[in-house]
Amino acid sequence: MIDTLNSDPPSSEPQASSDDCFWLRVAIDVPLAGLFDYRCAHAVAPGCRVIVPFGRRKLMGIVVETPDTPSFEAKQVREVDEVLDDLPPFPSDWMRMAAFAAQYYQRPLGEVMLPTLPAGLRKVTAYQGKRSAGGPVRRLDKRASKSSPKPIQAKEAPALNEEQIQAVQAIDAITGYKAVLLHGVTGSGKTEVYLRAAQTVLARGRQVLFMVPEINLTPQLEQSLRSSLAVAAGPDSLAVLHSGLSDGERLRAWLRVQRGEARILLGTRLSIFTPMPDLGLIIVDEEHDTSYKQQEGLRYSARDLAVWRAHDRDIPVVLGSATPSLESWAHAQRGNYLKLSLEHRARDVELPVVQLVDTRRLAMQQGFSPQLIEAIQGRLEHGEQSLVFLNRRGYAPVLNCGSCGWVSQCPRCTAYTVLHRAGARRNYLQCHHCGYQARVPASCPDCGDQDLHPMGRGTQRVEEYLAELFPEARIARIDADSTRLKGSAEALFAKVHAGEIDILVGTQMVAKGHDFANLGLVGVLNADGMLFAQDFRAPERLFAQLMQVAGRAGRHVRGGKVIIQTDYPEQPVYQALVKHDYVGFARYGLEEREAIGLPPYAFQALLTAEARELATAIEFLTQARALPEQSPDAYYMASAITLYDPVPLRVLRVANIERAQLLIESAQRPALQAFLAQWSVSLPELAGGHRVRWQLEVDPLEI
Ligand SMILES: Nc1ncnc2c1ncn2[C@@H]1O[C@H](COP(=O)(O)OP(=O)(O)OP(=O)(O)O)[C@@H](O)[C@H]1O
Ligand SMILES: [Zn+2]
């Protein structure tokens, strides 16, 4: 690929002849396909970082190839500015994974490689600024504050039960690549299985990558990892990576893993891209969780890349969940993945009883059925905790005028603004799509009436009502608002674990992975909201979410109970929940998908366009759709592809930008890949004429 920006006139300095210089092909983080040629007076290995001139800028790049000859006229090839030697070259397996991701997700290699690095490693100013002092790695090494390892309390590990033993043995016995799907009901002790499997691998001198959806919500897991794996790998063997770290913290953790000093990496999706010289096992906990999918920039699935990486490194990967994604379940059914099951709870308790409360004929109070109120009362009397789950933060989803029907609408989005309470006079309306904020008007902006009232309810309003009902109870709310400050989520969860909370109100943040010892009751409000969503994955997601949150009940105490309030108790999702029947639900879901040809029986990609006007976005997509028809010969395999009509997104306008999408589908993955590779080449030029932003997403999760 020719670097068109490299066409500055050759400098007046004498040019080295091609005999005494080396050619480098470099990946740079710019939205242009291909690699860029540079020269260097000495040899540079692939995987090295270099600083290169690019147009008038200097950019960080990674050497990918060292060809014998440049791909365009030697005279015009510019010289690298600096070859960085503060890190060894990236290992070849890391380079392979980046190359795979670039090709699979249809992105330039530089746009894949560089954003995965800690900030300091990809910033030119970190090396060439006045105070760079040899770059961030040397600065960090110089400081090398001997991290005083906190004394670790080696926790007594429970004796494994029969199901756990079988699972651990099956994983230990794997040599080479194998994907394992560990399907275990909530509270079945999957964590203990991961830990034992990890210990074996650590004892063999290998590293372990342990991925979780969201880390700041599960300090408990970090504790158990520290205490149970320290024995196998030494007290300072754990590194943690997630997006909440400072640049310095992230660089330090990344370096310790890349140098092999840390033997276990606990991290969120971004950790999949960390170089690990001795990687011997990958664990993906809650593998169905949508947090593994990055929704901006390179839209990758860290779960899928984990399987690819394990295959490439010839090592096992364990995907664990109580509600596996239908994709993974289908793999297991076909025998591609080894399925291991934990069908019973690890402690001597039963799964909670799930009760559906039909709300159609009930006198509800503030969204609560008499059954749920009575149940909370009962748990309070027994000194047990209750959890009220509502996946909607704020006080009320919309403010409404009782006389003219005015509703609080975001001026920039096709969405309502949500009423938030922040103490007298500080209440505000906020758009959850674009962040727009406004004061709460004293009277209706349209008719002047003062009869404005909140409609519906969010977690704040539920918390307020519970406080009225149960004035003695200690109530806490956990959602994105109450946990905005660093450390506040940990502090709130610590209070729940310490028994200082009687009733917990929360969004999906409380559903994930927590092992609350004294929680007896879970109440679910407003679950129906997701039942009739357009997305074909909505029932799967609803089922997983409710199964997860229901699974918080009765993990240590007997008599756990879940109350789901619904207008549609006969729906298959709810019926399966009552029976804890993931297997039945998955069978039904897969049959349906197969019948209408949806993933995992088809493969999809999504082209999304954003413009000031919907018409512009649709026009771009319509022309993109027509490209293969115009030059059918150029599109090998196009006959195996279905291109649907462009449609506006459900939330059409966000922050004054209107959005539309075009779905691409095929029954064969290779055909889809081949098609996208050809098609995407023509898209930048087409978009240029339309003033649209576009992105192509492979294996989209939301349609
Ligand atoms: N063999 C065992 N004997 C006794 N207790 C155990 C055993 N294994 C695990 N436990 C305990 O059982 C509880 C549930 O285990 P864990 O949190 O690992 O479940 P899980 O399968 O990850 O559930 P979820 O999917 O709901 O997160 C924990 O308190 C754990 O300490
Ligand atoms: Zn908005």
Automatic annotation (TrEMBL):
<keyword id="KW-0235">DNA replication</keyword>
<dbReference type="GO" id="GO:0006270">
    <property type="term" value="P:DNA replication initiation"/>
</dbReference>
<feature type="domain" description="Helicase ATP-binding">
    <location>
        <begin position="171"/>
        <end position="342"/>
    </location>
</feature>
<dbReference type="GO" id="GO:0016887">
    <property type="term" value="F:ATP hydrolysis activity"/>
</dbReference>
<feature type="binding site">
    <location>
        <position position="401"/>
    </location>
    <ligand>
        <name>Zn(2+) 1</name>
    </ligand>
</feature>
<keyword id="KW-0639">Primosome</keyword>
<keyword id="KW-0479">Metal-binding</keyword>
<dbReference type="GO" id="GO:0003677">
    <property type="term" value="F:DNA binding"/>
</dbReference>
<feature type="binding site">
    <location>
        <position position="444"/>
    </location>
    <ligand>
        <name>Zn(2+) 1</name>
    </ligand>
</feature>
<dbReference type="InterPro" id="IPR041236">
    <property type="entry name" value="PriA_C"/>
</dbReference>
<keyword id="KW-0862">Zinc</keyword>
<dbReference type="GO" id="GO:0005524">
    <property type="term" value="F:ATP binding"/>
</dbReference>
<dbReference type="InterPro" id="IPR042115">
    <property type="entry name" value="PriA_3primeBD_sf"/>
</dbReference>
<comment type="similarity">
    <text>Belongs to the helicase family. PriA subfamily.</text>
</comment>
<feature type="binding site">
    <location>
        <position position="404"/>
    </location>
    <ligand>
        <name>Zn(2+) 1</name>
    </ligand>
</feature>
<dbReference type="GO" id="GO:0006269">
    <property type="term" value="P:DNA replication, synthesis of primer"/>
</dbReference>
<keyword id="KW-0067">ATP-binding</keyword>
<keyword id="KW-0347">Helicase</keyword>
<feature type="region of interest" description="Disordered">
    <location>
        <begin position="130"/>
        <end position="159"/>
    </location>
</feature>
<dbReference type="InterPro" id="IPR027417">
    <property type="entry name" value="P-loop_NTPase"/>
</dbReference>
<comment type="subunit">
    <text>Component of the replication restart primosome.</text>
</comment>
<dbReference type="InterPro" id="IPR005259">
    <property type="entry name" value="PriA"/>
</dbReference>
<dbReference type="GO" id="GO:0043138">
    <property type="term" value="F:3'-5' DNA helicase activity"/>
</dbReference>
<feature type="binding site">
    <location>
        <position position="410"/>
    </location>
    <ligand>
        <name>Zn(2+) 2</name>
    </ligand>
</feature>
<dbReference type="InterPro" id="IPR014001">
    <property type="entry name" value="Helicase_ATP-bd"/>
</dbReference>
<keyword id="KW-0547">Nucleotide-binding</keyword>
<protein>
    <recommendedName>
        <fullName>Replication restart protein PriA</fullName>
        <ecNumber>5.6.2.4</ecNumber>
    </recommendedName>
</protein>
<dbReference type="Pfam" id="PF18074">
    <property type="entry name" value="PriA_C"/>
</dbReference>
<dbReference type="Pfam" id="PF00270">
    <property type="entry name" value="DEAD"/>
</dbReference>
<dbReference type="Pfam" id="PF00271">
    <property type="entry name" value="Helicase_C"/>
</dbReference>
<comment type="function">
    <text>Initiates the restart of stalled replication forks, which reloads the replicative helicase on sites other than the origin of replication. Recognizes and binds to abandoned replication forks and remodels them to uncover a helicase loading site. Promotes assembly of the primosome at these replication forks.</text>
</comment>
<feature type="binding site">
    <location>
        <position position="447"/>
    </location>
    <ligand>
        <name>Zn(2+) 1</name>
    </ligand>
</feature>
<keyword id="KW-0238">DNA-binding</keyword>
<dbReference type="InterPro" id="IPR011545">
    <property type="entry name" value="DEAD/DEAH_box_helicase_dom"/>
</dbReference>
<feature type="binding site">
    <location>
        <position position="431"/>
    </location>
    <ligand>
        <name>Zn(2+) 2</name>
    </ligand>
</feature>
<dbReference type="InterPro" id="IPR001650">
    <property type="entry name" value="Helicase_C-like"/>
</dbReference>
<dbReference type="GO" id="GO:0008270">
    <property type="term" value="F:zinc ion binding"/>
</dbReference>
<dbReference type="GO" id="GO:0006302">
    <property type="term" value="P:double-strand break repair"/>
</dbReference>
<dbReference type="GO" id="GO:0006310">
    <property type="term" value="P:DNA recombination"/>
</dbReference>
<dbReference type="InterPro" id="IPR041222">
    <property type="entry name" value="PriA_3primeBD"/>
</dbReference>
<dbReference type="Pfam" id="PF17764">
    <property type="entry name" value="PriA_3primeBD"/>
</dbReference>
<dbReference type="GO" id="GO:1990077">
    <property type="term" value="C:primosome complex"/>
</dbReference>
